[in-house]
Amino acid sequence: MKKIAVLTSGGDSPGMNAAVRAVVRSAIYHGCKVYGVNRGYKGLIDGDLFEMDLSSVGDIIHRGGTILRSARCEEFRTEEGRKKAHNVLNVFGIDGLVVIGGDGSFQGAQKLSEMGFPAIGVPGTIDNDLAYTDYTIGFDTALNTVLDAISKIRDTSSSHERISIIEVMGRHCGDIALYAGVAGGAEIIIVPEEEYDIDEICKRLIQSNNRGKKHSIIMLAEGVGNANEIMEQIKEKTGLDSRATILGHIQRGGTPSAFDRILSSQMGAKAVELLLEGKASRVVGIKNNEIIDMDIHEALSMERKFNSNLYKLASILAK
Ligand code: ADP
């Protein structure tokens, strides 16, 4: 019987629990034993592993966060730390590891694979910043959370005839700002992938104001800069009343959307299948609506393609 371990690492995202559930239940279905690792790579180094059964993942598919908890672990970045983790995996007799996390966690998984330990990555991050997959687990839920916030901010922005700048997460990736901006009808979207001109933005805001449109929503990706600084520039250049809202960690929580639950279920099960087929050093993704897998090294070296068509469309539609 094979023994599989699963951990969640890095920034948490809604749907991680559904992915853990899928790993545990499909592994048990295939006759394996499954171990959960608490707190990501830290738990691996500390030997904080426990056996999971069918009921240990009951009643979690709808829960945000991760029951395995997540952590950042500096020690795992060192060779010594990774050796400790490798020893723990051997001592527990684990044959393969599923790592649910973002690109940093994948780099950790890649290092383990290079040490000869089979590791499979499942993309759990709201940022949608992994080039090899169309979607990551948690992105869709985060979009819906942001959309809900946009509607609420729009109400007050309209009552007070203000410009609202909403800063969203995504690190160096503008997908949350772009997709939520399109869905929420934002007037302006500022992302790291596209250059922006503050004077051009101010000109558009003044023209809209003169046309009688007294409120506007500006979506700002955190990778560009701080919403308060942009607000000050806009106030100074236009004289128009503006407010900044930084949504922050609200975007990482909440019950996962149907899309994220289904995606997590498929990806978790695929990771187990790959380990059972004797594959190592792979990541799971979704491409053109098909669940795919790819070499981890190749996946991490791919360059992200920004959806510039959608970005252009957003600016045509938002007047
Ligand atoms: P995310 O997985 O969300 O991108 P981080 O970048 O913080 O989050 O990475 C999570 C953890 O993965 C880190 O705390 C560290 O333990 C491990 N990790 C990240 N990068 C590396 C690396 N280059 N080598 C080894 N481990 C890494």
From TrEMBL:
Its cofactor is Mg(2+). The keyword rRNA processing does not apply. Its EC number is 2.7.1.11. The active site is at residue 127. ADP binds at residues 21-25, 154, 185-187, 211, 213-215. Pathway: Carbohydrate degradation; glycolysis; D-glyceraldehyde 3-phosphate and glycerone phosphate from D-glucose: step 3/4. ATP binds at residues 11, 72-73, 102-105. The keyword Metal-binding applies. Allosterically activated by ADP and other diphosphonucleosides, and allosterically inhibited by phosphoenolpyruvate. Homotetramer. This is ATP-dependent 6-phosphofructokinase. It comes from Alkalithermobacter paradoxus.
